Amino acid sequence: MLTRELRAHLLRTGLAGVVGTPREVSLRSYRLFGLRDPRVTIGVDPEGVWDERDVLRLMAERCGVSDDPRCTSGQDVIDPGRTVLALHAFAARLARAARHREPVLLGTGHPHRLLGFYVALADALSTAGCAVLTPAQGRCVDITTRFGLRTHRLAYVRGVGCVRDPAAEAAGCEPGAHTHSPLPVRLALAAAAEGGGPLPGLVIGDHGWICGAGQLGFEAVGPADVNDPAPFVGQAEGRVSVVVPLDDAARSSYYRPLTRYVLNRACLSQ
C-alpha cells in the first residue's frame, strides 16, 4: 500500500479525518486529565502542570483537533498526515526491535477492536527472532470498572496481553474486556522482573499498557484516540516514544491495511 492509498483509507474508514469521538467527550477527558483523574491519566504521572487548555493545545499539535475551546460539539478530527508520520515512526521502531531481536511485550485494552492488529505484529516480530513475552499469564488483577471493583484474569492471545472478566468468560464473551487500567502491564512487568527472565526492550500497546509501561521507564509505542490524552502527555514528557493518533474503536477489519503498511515499511513478514 502506498502512502496516498493509506491516507485515503484512513479518511474513508474514519480512522482519521472526522472520527467517531464526539468533541464533548474529548473535552471532558482533557478537563479530567487536568484534574489528575486516574480514569484518564491511566498510569501517567505528569511532571508538569497540565490544565485543560494545555491538554487541548497539545492534542491540537499532536492530533490536529481544533484548539478553539469554544468548539464544543460535533465530531472530533484527526489530521491523517499526523497519523501517517506517526505510523512511519512506529514502523521504524519495530524495525529496530527486529534488527536487534529485542524481547517485546504486547497488550491491549481494546481486544475487540485491536487484537488482530497486535497479533500480526507479534507474529512478525517473533518470526524476526524477537522473544514475545507473556509474563503473569493467568494471574488475577482487581480493576475498578463502572460496576465497581472486579477481578480480572491476565491472558495472552497469540502473544498479546489482555484481561478477561471470569464471569463474562464463562458466558462465552471473548476475546477480552475493554479497560484503560495500567494495572495489567504493571502486573506483567513485575512478574517478568521477579521471574528473572528477560525484560522487554519494547512495549507495544494502548491505553494503560503504553502509559503504565512508559511511566515505569520501559520504551513504549502504540495508538491512541483523541479522547485519550495520557499517551500524548507521556510522549511530550519523554515517557512514551511513539503515539499514533487514530480512532481506536473502529471495525477491526479497518486496521488490517495499517498492519500491512507498517510491516512492509519495517521490512517484516506478516
From TrEMBL:
It comes from the Bacteria. It comes from Streptomyces griseoaurantiacus. This is Phosphatase. Pfam families: Phosphatase (PF15698).
